[in-house]
Amino acid sequence: VKRRAGAGAASRVVFWPFGLFGNPGGEAGVLDLSQALGASLAEHEAEPASRLHAVAARTKLEMCEVLEAEDVPRWRRDLHRRFARCLARREFAVFVGGNHLVALPVLEAYAERPERACVVSFDAHLDAYDLAAGRERLNHGNFLLHLARPPRLSIVNVGHRDLVLERRRVRDFFDRDYPVEAIDARPLDALVRELARYLRGFDLVHFDIDLDVLDPSAMRAVGTPMPCGLAPRELVRILDGLFSEKTAGVTISEYDGGRDPDGAGRHFVVFLIERLLLRRAEIAARA
Ligand SMILES: [Mn+2]
After folding, report:
1. Separation of 52 CA from ligand 1 center, angstroms?
2. What is the residue-averaged pLDDT of the chain?
3. In sequence order, which residues have a C-beta less than 8 Å from that of residue 150 and are 6 or more positions away?
4. Residue 60 bridge partners (DSSP)
5. How close are the terminal C-alpha atoms of the chain, in Å?
6. What is the pLDDT of residues 44-64, one digit of tens each?
7. Which of 163, 195, 213, 254 would bridge 159 by S-S if both were Cys, CB 3.0 to 4.6 A apart?
């Protein structure tokens, strides 16, 4: 199955302000991000000379309702349905969640597609923690244990510094993983080429960005910061190198506005989303 974006295909950014079961600050963080992105896109839409002028006009922003813990089965179905609809319409989907749980229903939507899909997961952590303290209950650090993953759905981690998941268990959840030491071991372009080669075997590609993949010096505003992360420019270079007409969607999670006193983290996330929307529009226009 070949996926081609139609010329000027529209994009949708869905905000899911949920921070329970990990990163309670994520709820307010998503509201901050939605306001900041909405204001920025409105400025670009009002400015015909902006590269983002047409993109802003063709991007829909959507806010999910704030949910309580008991609504979890409902949000899982709701997000799944929203994302599956974007995939079916070939609408470029950016889902912004309070915590990394936003990725679970999105991965479930890929799991039921007939295409071969690869999720490139940028995350400091390998979210398949089977810890004695948190085994039963779904949370933002163990959701991969709750995913029924068919063989045609691949997950690759980039940028982890994980100290928890035992090495012998990593391949149960990830087809490949590139911890920061593997990224540092050679020029970044070589890694991007290797990943791009791997992605040729898939019809759909998804970028799952847990913002804690970044170094805390660049992104303090996350629920579970980890030292020695990627620089923002490294993340942007990898995304640029892997972005193609197969890129179907993006998830972004764990922004905590309460830990972002000067707004630098929010500024980066808005920049990142706008850059992804622009890249998608440019690729769609060439197709
Ligand atoms: Mn993480």
Report:
1. 30
2. 91
3. 111
4. 12
5. 16
6. 999 999 999 999 999 999 999
7. 213
Q: How far apart are CA 242 and CA 236, in angstroms?
A: 10
The model's pTM is: 0.93
Q: How far is ligand 1, taken at its centre, from the CA of residue 88, in Å?
A: 29
Q: How confident is the model at residue 145 (pLDDT cuts 50, 70, 90)?
A: confident
Residue 46 sits at φ, ψ, to 5 deg, of: -80, -5
What percent of the chain has a predicted confidence (pLDDT) above 90?
Answer: 75
Which residues have C-beta within 8 Å of that of residue 241, sequence separation ≥ 6? Answer: 189, 192, 193, 195, 196
The packing angle between helices 188-199 and 232-242, to 10°, is: 40
**How far is ligand 1, taken at its centre, from the CA of residue 86, in Å?**
25
Residues 267-276: pLDDT tens digits?
999 999 999 9
